[in-house]
Amino acid sequence: MNTIDLIAKKRDGGTLTREEIEHWIGGTVGRTIPDYQSSALLMAIRLRGMTDEETADLTDAMAHSGSMFTPEELGGFTVDKHSTGGVGDTTTLVLIPLLAAAGLTVGKLSGRALGHTGGTIDKLESIPGFRTDLSRDRFLELVRETKLALADHTADMVPADRILYELRDVTATVDSLPLIVASIMSKKIAGGAQAIVIDVKTGAGAFLPKLEDSRRLAGSLVAIGSKLGRKMAALITDMSQPLGRMVGNALEVREAIDTLRGEGPEDLSGLCCELGAELLLFAGSRRDRDGAVDRLDRLLHDGSALAKFGELIAHQDGNPAVIDDPSLLPRAARKVEARAEQSGVVRALDALAIGRAANLLGAGRSTVEDAIDPAVGVELVRKVGDRVEDDELLAVLHVNDETHLDAACRMVESAYTIDPETTEVAPPEIIVDRIVGGS
Ligand code: URA
Ligand code: CA
User: Fold this and answer.
1) 405-428 average pLDDT score
2) For ligand 1, atom 8, which residue shows the shortest CA distance?
3) What is the CB neighbour count within 10 angstroms for residue 275?
4) How far is the CA of 438 from the centre of ligand 2 (A)?
């Protein structure tokens, strides 16, 4: 097969066959197709698009480019949850033990923070001793025996995505719907779960801020996952302001523990129950959504979900005492207050600005090599809809390295839009839309 012909075909608006796509992915990972040819093909796909059939073939070929977990290996009916990335998005930390408490099998592979969005692996690693670098065998053993494990992607999984993502990053081809869908879904398919719920964020702090883009992404993720035999649901959820009140690694673990104790912020607990309900319905343990939501809410209040989190921590070498004594988590040296400069109601709280401020304090990373500080971040005392008086507290910055403190403080203050004219602002609805696969 001639790679030039393949590029020309897509350039001219043609449809690639499964064999052609497999040739490209095989040659990319085997390094027999040079980066300049892959880059040209990526640009042709960015400009011409792909059919659902092509996108599913690309997803499947990428998933098979390295080592995989199959549903049979994981055993039972395993579920997974994915977020397209947000600010202070503490849902995975809550949802994973919650689903396990509901009797589902959870074997989840997660990522690290990048840019303004956080990563579950970094958050969990703020728990003293907690290990996310599980071997393939240990991961399988935990999933089979305890029905709950959460690990970093191993280096030999979906190598095609790593290579192509690097090329996309430097060739202005990241923002291609089929390429985004294949990138996300190849990793989910390689993870082996049979039912997957995707939390597609929308608004300022989201990877795709515009609602119409979030809708197209959600529709395509569900369509492609379903085509590849997975039970798929997607919720489009608000990320115009951060979720919950904590943004930062150890701070979010603390927030997750509160939520698993039934004392978390309403937006976060509500979203976790809604996302989880989709998977309970797929697993057949509930027939109605409201019943599923209620069941999960009960597990947040009766201690079962919190106990599962303790088990997860213990099985992965962490110190489960953090559950009862959060002071065992890393703490920042200083707390710095951000205060309102006028009275009014919070009309908007820019998630992107808060994410960037947390990064200035050291909570995130701009390149994969950066180190993060688990203790630092931003605690949001006021959120959209809250009344605040002049000079009252808006947020607390948890600080170690003060190099960028002034800039971070200004960024947090200017993330708040305070409306002096109004008495009431409705907080945004968390669930904007729901898309469920037909299979
Ligand atoms: N997230 C991914 O994993 N891949 C993309 O291409 C975009 C977002
Ligand atoms: Ca949060």
Assistant:
1) 97
2) 180
3) 26
4) 32
The tokens describing 103, both together, are: 């009797």
On whether the CB atoms of residues 127 and 313 are closer than 8 A, the answer is yes
Ligand 1 atom nearest to CA at 187: 3
Task: Give the domain ranges of the chain.
Answer: 3-49, 71-325+432-436, 331-419
- How confident is the model over 249-276, as pLDDT tens digits? 999 999 999 999 999 999 999 999 999 9
Over pLDDT 90: what percentage of the chain? 93
Measured in whole angstroms, the distance separating CA 246 from the mean position of its chain's CA atoms is 16
Q: What is the DSSP string of 326-350?
A: GGGS---SEEEEEE-SS-EEEEEE-
Q: In what order do the strands lie in the sheet with 431-436?
A: 148-152, 105-110, 78-83, 195-202, 231-238, 431-436
Whether the pLDDT of residue 86 is over 70: the answer is yes
Q: Which ligand is nearest to the CA of 242?
A: 2
pLDDT digits (tens, 9 = 90+) for 321-332: 999 999 999 999
Task: Name the CATH topology of 3-49.
Answer: 1.20.970
Classify residue 346 as left (phi > 0), alpha (psi -120 to 50) or beta: beta
71-325+432-436 CATH, one of 3.90.1530.30, 3.40.1030.10, 1.10.300.10, 3.40.470.10: 3.40.1030.10
Backbone dihedral angles phi then psi of residue 400, each to the nearest 5 degrees:
-115, -75
Mutate to test the pocket of ligand 1, among 116, 117, 184, 201 (most ligand atoms within 8 A of CB): 184
In CATH, the number for domain 331-419 is 3.90.1170.30
DSSP, res 326:
G
Does the pTM exceed 0.85? yes
Residues lining ion ligand 2 (Cβ < 5 A) are 88, 90, 243-244, 246
Nearest CA to ligand 1 atom 1: 184
CB 253: neighbour CB atoms within 10 A? 27
pLDDT at residue number 356 = 96
- Residue 104 CA, distance from chain mean position: 20
pLDDT tens-digit map of 205-234: 999 999 999 999 999 999 999 999 999 999
Q: How would residue 285 be classed by pLDDT, with cut points 50, 70 and 90?
A: confident
Which ligand has an atom closest to residue 251 CA?
Answer: 2
What residues are annotated to the active site? 82, 161, 168, 183, 187
Residue that wins the pLDDT comparison between 439 and 250: 250
Over 70: is that where the pLDDT of 24 sits?
yes
Q: Which atom of ligand 1 is nearest to the CA of 183?
A: 4
Distance 408 CA to ligand 1 centre (A): 27
User: 184 CB under 6 A from ligand 1?
Assistant: yes
Q: Is the CB of 183 under 6 A from ligand 1?
A: yes
